[in-house]
Amino acid sequence: MQQPPTLEPVFVSDPGPYLVTSSIEIKYLLSQLLEKGEIICLYPAGKREPFAISTFLAMDDQGLLFDGSNDKKTNEALTKENRILLVGVVNKVKIQFELPNANLVSYESRTAIRSAGPVQTLRMQRRDFYRLDIPMSQKVVCTIPLAHGGHPELLVTDISLGGLSLLGVSPDLPMVVGNTLHNCRIQLLDVGLIEIDMQVCIVIDVTLKNGIKTQRVGFRFFDLSGKMQTLIQRFINKIERQRISRE
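C-alpha cells predicted for Flagellar brake protein YcgR:
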C-alpha cells in the first residue's frame, strides 16, 4: 500500500514535468484546500525550516489568508523575505505553491499570514505521466485494425502520455500481455485523431455493475511522436477544464 504524501517540500532540478500554470487549475487546487479544510505546511520559500502547520482561512480579492504559528519567531522567519512556500495535498497528490507578498496580519484577534496568489504550482503526481479518467459522457473509442480486415472498437477509459486503458472484449482479438497492436486509431473528440502502436501490459477480468463480464486492458505507447503527444495533452487539458468548471 502506498503511503500518503508528506507535507515536506520537494525541490527538483527540473520542475517542468510537474509545473501547472493554468489559472483555472490553480484556482481549483486552492479552492479544494480551502473547502475541505486540509492541513497544510508553510515554509520560508526555498527552505525546509522553520515551518508552521497551518490551515487555509480565506481566499478573496486581497489574496490568501492562512493561520500563523503560535511562535512569534517562526512567523517572523516565514515572512522575513515576503515569500512563503505552501505544501498541501489535494486528491492524494502533493502540491506546492510559492506565494509572494507574504506578511503578518491580525485576524480575529490572532496572528495570520496574508499573501498574494500564486502564478504557478508544482503537482507531484505519483505516475510518470498524469492519467486522465475519461468521463462516461465523453465516449472515446480505440479502433484496432486486424490482419484479416476486421477493426474492433473498444472503449478508452483513461489516457496519459505514457499509455491508456481499454474496456471490452473482441472475439477476434485476444489480449495477451506482451503483444503489440499496430496502427491503432483514436479520435479524441474534436481535438484530433491519433494513430499509435501500443503494447499490452496488463489484462484484468472485471464485472460491470450490470453483471456483464468483460476485460480492462492496460497498454503502453511505443515511440509517441511530438504531434501525437501534443494532441493527447490538449485532450487531457480540455477534459480537465470541463470537469473543473462544473465543480
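The first strand starts at residue 19 and ends at 20.
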